[in-house]
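Put briefly, the fold is written as integer tokens. One such record reads:
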Amino acid sequence: MGYYYYYVVLMMMVVWGSQRCDGFGTFGFNIHHRYSDPVKGILDLRGLPEKGSIDYYAAMAHRDLLFHGRKLAAVTSAPLTFVGGNDTYQLNALGHLFYANVSVGSPSLRFLVALDTGSDLFWLPCDCIQCVRGLQTTSGQVDFNIYSPSNSTTSSKVSCNSTFCGQCSLNTCPYYDEYLSNNTSSFGLLVEDVLHLTTDDSQLKAVDAQITFGCGIVQTGLFLDGGAPNGLFGLGMKNISVPSILANQGLAANSFSMCFGPDGIGRISFGDKGSSEQGETPFNLGQSHPTYNISITQITVEKNVTDLCFTAIFDSGTSFTYLNDPAYSVITEGFNSQAKEKRHPPDSQIPFEYCYDLSANQKTFETASLNLTMKGGKQFPVTHPIEIIDMQGQGYIYCVAVVKSGDINIIGQNFMTGYHIIFDCERMVLGWESSNCEYISPNLDCVSK
């Protein structure tokens, strides 16, 4: 029987501070949860639910639904509500889970951009007709930088013969990116400019990478409600993504890693190909829109082994893990059979179906272990399958943090916690290695300007 000792920590992560970029070396940024104080200081509009509260988990699940549109529409049989009937939270403003404060152009401007492994293009608000120029927070107005090609001496238009230019109109290359969320899109022109990076060696050498990105003139949907208030940093598989462009320029390998520590501090590193000790499984290719999709062949809950084969997307931008049957039932019913605590009654306010009551002053509890076998035979032990919820004056419960999906299977950030995850597009493999991310500097600065 595996023992799990938990304290209530689940923070949404933001990236800050460039660290390294070398010729086939790596460069990176520290990442911090969306709920970190510096991030909330910039992105909060009217406050958010307390971390670990029942409102918090309902809001996070609702955020996942918003960002995945109809794909997770059947995630719950009842609409998510809030304790006391309070439905006034600015849920759209929860935005993406991860952000980076990146520096672009000459003179350089900083942009607090959302990181997204599910999209490819890097775009910034640019000579906007419709975009977010700032947010009114509890501490005052926060104004965002707006990019303008005419104000950067290193900016240039993307030529019509560029491989990135699908069509050309009046010597400009337009782009239009539509996202899964209803009526969420970004429209504008493709431009080139420098992305300022710093090597991660003792010399801390400055490197200016020539990047193609979107000059976002019009944003719609969630992007106007705080989903990506100051731009979006695409981390997908296509050639237009930042990791691919850096690789094509010979600055780094076409691979990046994300590390999720149990204390909420993490890191993204471009060019990181992992180590010889890591577990690996191949990406499933041949999709119309390539994603970080892998195959799972076996689920082990404690000592109960179930052979089944299904595909799932590793998405660091999704809060929780969403699974279809039979995988969902194998995991949740497996945990239920091992649980010693009384099962909590069904509650539409809680996004998780299998929850258990903790007695007063109970500090530890015993749960089943969970292990996923990936295609190729490597094991992926899930270190954090449980979440503790504060019932706000009515004690605590713990839940199996898996939600029943209406369509696609998604391995979310909660299952990646405690791992160094490698997204390797050169070898087309997902890698993982246990890590507490203790090598990460706890730099929590997060300033828009």
